[in-house]
């Protein structure tokens, strides 16, 4: 308090006559001094620490990041975190009004440090021809992309024999061929710059298959294989590939799922409703990007055990899945 009073008395330049008159001002300034000075000193100290030890508190600051499926769920949560981290975001999906809502929420939110107004691109991953032209639109925004997050996706409910081939094709288009086309378009520019990261939001169902989800699980297995090949091919060119495989996350995924005949499932499944929060899932995805991880499972213990059993005791796993299929059939009949 002594130093503060000394500084303040020199600031108020008090004389013996003026001292009495100045006392309320001086008291007010003394009270205000520490609340202002303390955060300032902490800020200065943290900055000095960062410069001294090369520590970056916002390691992705300024990166150009494309997020597909940014209009809801995990993609929206990713947008929130990466906006706060000072990334230059390009938000993509089909529903432009939802992207505008996400953008408005971001711009209104309180952040610390520099931020950039997100760009929006309307993108339908099922329309492969348009995906190719959209890559040029995306590249025109900043001239390059640092990180592509292939997050958009959809699921389905139905048995293999009863699901129409159009539904199978749609799932493969949205979850596999669309992201593949986008990755081809954008990764070329990463290769030219010898820098970049491609992230695939897969699923634990990209590592083992559940009954009555064949199209979804097949598309996610395809994504896993694509990512593993791509990683091997691009490692020496400076491009990193990350696959994240969440278990159940509480989003609109099951509501938007297609039935065997291609209608909207329209139900929030109990497993999805009790899943991880999308914000928590997004935080783990951002951590995986920052840490440079290749392959990350974001789930509770049970899916991890299933992954283990599928790899090391497949016959037992197949027996468990047959039981599960039998139970689901009994429940639905
Ligand atoms: N929720 C889970 O339990 C869970 C678990 C594991 C993995 N995942 C994966 O997480 C990712 C995100 O899903 P979510 O859970 O956040 O579900 P969500 O809330 O339904 O979000 C799906 C997103 O994908 C976009 N999308 C759907 N079809 C598209 C298309 N044809 N073209 C472009 N964008 C399209 C949607 O936007 P528009 O409708 O505006 O196009 C939406 O933003 C998916 O890849 C999903 O497989 C989810």
Automatic annotation (TrEMBL):
Residue ranges annotated for the Ketoreductase domain, each copy included: 63-252
Chloroplast in keyword set: no
One Pfam family in the UniProt entry: adh_short
Keywords: Oxidoreductase
Keyword Nucleotide-binding found: no
Ranges in coiled-coil conformation: none
Known function: Putative oxidoreductase.
Family: Belongs to the short-chain dehydrogenases/reductases (SDR) family.
Protein name: Ketoreductase domain-containing protein
């Amino acid at each position: 308090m002594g130093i503060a009073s000394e500084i303040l008395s020199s600031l108020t330049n008090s004389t013996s006559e003026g001292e009495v008159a100045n006392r309320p001002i001086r008291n007010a300034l003394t009270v205000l001094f520490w609340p202002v000075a303390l955060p300032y000193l902490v800020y200065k100290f943290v900055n000095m620490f960062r410069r001294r030890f090369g520590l970056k508190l916002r390691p992705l600051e300024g990166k150009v990041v494309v997020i597909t499926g940014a209009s809801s769920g995990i993609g929206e949560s990713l947008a929130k975190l990466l906006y706060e981290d000072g990334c230059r975001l390009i938000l993509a999906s089909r529903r432009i009004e939802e992207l505008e809502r996400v953008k408005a929420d971001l711009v209104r939110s309180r952040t610390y440090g520099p931020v950039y107004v997100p760009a929006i691109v309307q993108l339908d991953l099922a329309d492969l021809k348009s995906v190719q032209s959209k890559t040029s639109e995306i590249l025109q925004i900043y001239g390059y992309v640092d990180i592509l997050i292939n997050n958009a996706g959809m699921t389905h409910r139905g048995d293999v024999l009863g699901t129409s081939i159009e539904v199978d094709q749609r799932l493969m288009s949205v979850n596999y061929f669309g992201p593949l086309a986008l990755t081809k378009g954008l990764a070329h520019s990463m290769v030219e710059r010898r820098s970049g990261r491609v992230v695939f939001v897969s699923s634990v169902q990209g590592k083992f298959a559940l009954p009555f989800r064949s199209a979804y699980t097949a598309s996610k297995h395809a994504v896993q294989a694509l990512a593993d090949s791509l990683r091997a091919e691009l490692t020496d060119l400076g491009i990193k590939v990350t696959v994240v495989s969440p278990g159940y996350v509480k989003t609109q995924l099951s509501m938007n799922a297609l039935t065997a005949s291609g209608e909207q499932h329209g139900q929030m499944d109990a497993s999805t409703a009790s899943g991880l929060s999308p914000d928590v899932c997004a935080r783990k995805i951002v951590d995986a990007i920052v840490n440079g991880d290749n392959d990350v499972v974001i789930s509770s213990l049970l899916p991890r055990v299933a992954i283990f059993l599928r790899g090391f005791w497949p016959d037992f796993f197949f027996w468990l899945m047959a039981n599960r299929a039998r139970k689901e059939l009994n429940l639905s009949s």
